[in-house]
Write a structure and sequence with these properties.
The structure is a homodimer. The first copy, chain A, is α/β, with parallel strands linked by helices. In chain A, helix 11 packs parallel to helix 16 (436-451), helix 12 (331-340) packs antiparallel against helix 13 and helix 19 (511-521) crosses helix 20 (550-566). The interface between A and B is large, with 97 and 97 residues.
Amino acid sequence: MDPLAPMFEPRSVVVIGASQDKSKLGYGVARNLIGSGYPGEIYLVNPRGGELFGKPIIPSIDLLEKEIDLALVVVRAELVPNILIACSQIGIKHFIILTSGFKESGDEGKAIEYASKKIADEYRLRILGPNCVGIIDTHLPIDTTFIQPPMPLKGNIAFVTQSGALSAALIDYARGEGLGFSKLISLGNQMDVDESDILYTLADDSTTKAIVMYLETIQNGNKFLEIADNASAKKPIIALKVGRSNSGQQAAISHTGSLAGTDAAFTAAFRRANILRASNTREMFNWAIALAELPEPRDNRVAILTNAGGPGVIAADSVEHHGLRMAVLSTETQKKLSQFLSEAASINNPVDMLASASPETYRKCLRILIEDPNVDMICVIAPPPPLFSASAIADQVIETIKAAQKPVLVSLMGSSLVQDAKINLNLGRVPNFPYPEDCINAFSAVWKNKVIRMQNQSLESYSVPQNDIESLRTLISNYKYDDGVLPYEVIEKIFMSYKLPIQPMRLAPNEELAVQRAKEIEYQVAMKISIFGMSHKSDIGGVILDLGSENEVRSAYRYLELRANEFGKIQEFQGVYLQKMATPGHECIVGATRDAVFGPLLMFGSGGIEVEGKRDIEFALAPITKSDLDFIVQNTWAGKRLNGYRNHPKGDIESVKGVLIKVSQMMSDLPEIKEIEMNPLIVGEDHSGSSAVDVRIVIDVPREKE
Amino acid sequence: MDPLAPMFEPRSVVVIGASQDKSKLGYGVARNLIGSGYPGEIYLVNPRGGELFGKPIIPSIDLLEKEIDLALVVVRAELVPNILIACSQIGIKHFIILTSGFKESGDEGKAIEYASKKIADEYRLRILGPNCVGIIDTHLPIDTTFIQPPMPLKGNIAFVTQSGALSAALIDYARGEGLGFSKLISLGNQMDVDESDILYTLADDSTTKAIVMYLETIQNGNKFLEIADNASAKKPIIALKVGRSNSGQQAAISHTGSLAGTDAAFTAAFRRANILRASNTREMFNWAIALAELPEPRDNRVAILTNAGGPGVIAADSVEHHGLRMAVLSTETQKKLSQFLSEAASINNPVDMLASASPETYRKCLRILIEDPNVDMICVIAPPPPLFSASAIADQVIETIKAAQKPVLVSLMGSSLVQDAKINLNLGRVPNFPYPEDCINAFSAVWKNKVIRMQNQSLESYSVPQNDIESLRTLISNYKYDDGVLPYEVIEKIFMSYKLPIQPMRLAPNEELAVQRAKEIEYQVAMKISIFGMSHKSDIGGVILDLGSENEVRSAYRYLELRANEFGKIQEFQGVYLQKMATPGHECIVGATRDAVFGPLLMFGSGGIEVEGKRDIEFALAPITKSDLDFIVQNTWAGKRLNGYRNHPKGDIESVKGVLIKVSQMMSDLPEIKEIEMNPLIVGEDHSGSSAVDVRIVIDVPREKE
């Protein structure tokens, strides 16, 4: 059973801090709870006593005699810890704390929140909030918030938010669209109940067909991934994750007091959990409408039905922009259309019925398009028609749309002239948007929601004997560099254990040995300076490529010794590394870091000096899945090129996938590794392998006595 | 004087085809004209006679006795040519033809349009339309359309559209926003008056502060550029050019029957003419509101004032997304804010006043932000406040916003709960949008509108003696290859005349000469097959690089001869070209084509095999300007890299700019050239020049007797 059930379906609720003062939240909460039509028992508590909305106000918690499922707490923050204890003593286990003045308000509030959390843990209480707006359930119904009534309309979209203010705005946006919600949950400071707990509940909520989340951060990445993965298999989930930008992230941090993960990790996590990431508020909202109301499309071919050319072209542009396809109408469809459309009309897609199109023409053409097997989704465009009313069009098409087994959206272009039509469509639960572009964007979400369900999310792994792992960990722990950068010798051992391809290097502490090593590994060779405690060789010009003879090796060695001296590092100069020049190939970058929220994060893209400028890079969570491997190959130019883009020769893409899987495994096996980067990984032609030429591994250095 | 003045400010108007039948356009046009409050003389004509709206219907044009400035023609298409003649005989020179059934409807209509155009030319008539919605001027006022009344509100945005249906929709969208227009012009088929003519008129229209254009194509690229350049210096111009995508372009072509230019050329043309290109209908609309109402910002630093964290983060994300900057508030501002905001509030940007913020707090904080010299633009966010009404907030801030010398936009988040506030702001002409992202996007347009005015648009040129140009043209005209691809010898002559850098090639018709040429130009050399009439050498593996000795040259020659044989081209085999291998460097692509609308179009980006996959390419019109040169360097990775991105070594960017200027000039001097491409142009380190390794020039081949 869902442990939060008593919070969502309480048989009885008490408002602690109910107030007769209309300017107090305690008034608003009592007003909304009673006004919501909540069918259970309601109790109001306030030491001042009295009466409110015809109910007695009980002066003390101790006087409550009935069993109570849920307490709504609206008292000053400093009173909360004692209230929790008192309530738990009469058996209350579930709380929504609406008051602010906790973690978000400074040190004092933080201490109160900490104390409350300790009490909750001790008495096994479940708490939503504090500093939240509470819960609305339009079906039960119940409204535990203080948001201005009326409650939102009944609907099938659940909205979970880390911003209370957005609840009020969203309810009001929705009202304007005649749109309803199933549940609305404001999370507040997430002292106990977090976004994942709510997702768990909503996954099995029969009144909810689509879940929308406004997120500023995620409390526990692994918990979220596990629950979201399960929930998204049952219904579509849309997330608006804010704090994408640096400045947004700054604002989110100061706002929630939490450490945000990197944006790339969130994108990778949402992809992994089959969550659709909206890029702005309107998109979040419109996608939710479409996903809650529309059937699943068979394929992504869109037909456009319009009474004017311009809006048709706008929609067609948008189809391509969103990666959908324009349907090619069957000849039968064209024949049927031509039977009652005039010669000047267009019977190709977009179908332009011309301005004279009657409501009946709209209906007939729509039906023909619905019947066309080449058409998967249909956008009906209605600018204010010159000769008919938009509402007459709406009335004609509603039944046809409701009966269609294909997604149909209507763009009512305008405002007051299409207002009646909009009301009619809303009453008939036919989703509609003012601009054609909004319809096509919504189709793209409906299509993407289907595509992501077909991904193969099975995890990839690579097995290394436990003994080897243990000895690598011992080896790593013995190195104590300040900056945590591992020396080549350790890197080579790690790579050997994982059978990762590396271009071998040999240390030569003096000129003579440099000459000897160069001969051993065969020309051409590269030479890299080795300075104790210094990892960025290229920053001081400490790398020389393409040496082809003993003379060149000697003069290069002397030059690098000179460089060390110039940089005042002659004491730390340990000689040079010699490395055989790699066969030319595609330069890629493979790397991994640890994200604060989601843990190990892999990276792949174009390498060499171009990695910064081109930003041809994609990310995936580790352990990596089959579909993630495909994704990063298909979505980077580096990957496309290796895959044999057009008539380019194919590179050894399988070898790259192998490297990614091994790095993914390594990040799990060796938690000491904070960061790894191979740049470049030189990838040869198909079946000829790849080789890491420059590898950097940084480990977590425990900070000893600073 | 503006030649179209009598069309826009007629002293008298006749409706030809005025109808008593309410289902006819002739009824709607008469109704709107009379109802609009047009102050001039109005005449109605229809052979049936009678009366309409209290005015007599005159049965024949010949019976019109007064001088008439403008005729609104609403008769069947086939009657139009005779009507034009009849009207011109009584001195009418200006017409708006609203009827459809012309070019857009098939061959018959096309013939009628052609006949009408001939008459117009012969009698020097000016015609708007046919197949258009006409003109609305809210200031004169006049309404020559048949769009459902009421007329749009008076305002200062002019809207020019190639889609009549969009006029109706836009008027209605605008009504919903309480927004007005100065003029609205529907162009229809543009038989005579086109988008440029209208732009010319609007540039000096005192009631218009911003111009919005919906374009499917442009009739005459050069005329448009010249007029738009002048108009945009006087007021902001926003264009929504549709048909960006392949499918959109298909739809636009079938819609207007015109040949569309490439989308890249439109982007380049809009940049050249300082026109802001909107990417969708809503953006077009919102930008217009902001540009018509807001003052110019000093810089691009945005402050956000909110009563809730979430929407503040959303806005901050959007600031970065749109390339603006978050303002860093002065310490004085922070001190002032902290004096009356609570400790839990944020006095950093975004300024979060918390949910309890009163309308007065909004006003006070806003005033403080306006006074901060570090703040250039301010977004005020108001979700439905829990304790106050949104309209109380609106009332408090209106005066402050109107008095501010900085752009301020308000995001009223919601619908019915903020409806009153919206009405108040609209009445006070304070622009507002429902989502914070819309506000920030509008700021980005306001900022961009300032930036583009600072560009140096002076043209670059390169002078080649007229004699040289003449002899090149003669040379070119003497070559008659089927595919129009010029042979290397001609290309070399062209490049020499323009002092363009090319890696020289020498033809060797047999093996012995190949050896000799290789020695002359010095190893390493490249060898390219020469087959008469075949230009894509690499398609048949006809290019061999890095030959370093006589033996290698001999075996390469034999191999290529074999290839020619394998492809059945031994008859056409003319030997091989030998070319000295270029010094390694950055591989770029430089090219030019001729756009159907705007003429020569230059192209620059990353070259080599990557040109296709990375799409790292930008375009500019020729002749190129200083700011265009800067633009394509700053907006391609190829350009950034050459310019010394971070600590990458600088390449010879000046040499690349020189190449672009010369190619730009060449496209003007030599109209025979249809297409030129250097791929790669190898660019060396700074001051070391560049060299075109593979050049392809295609000329227009006159089609003789097919």
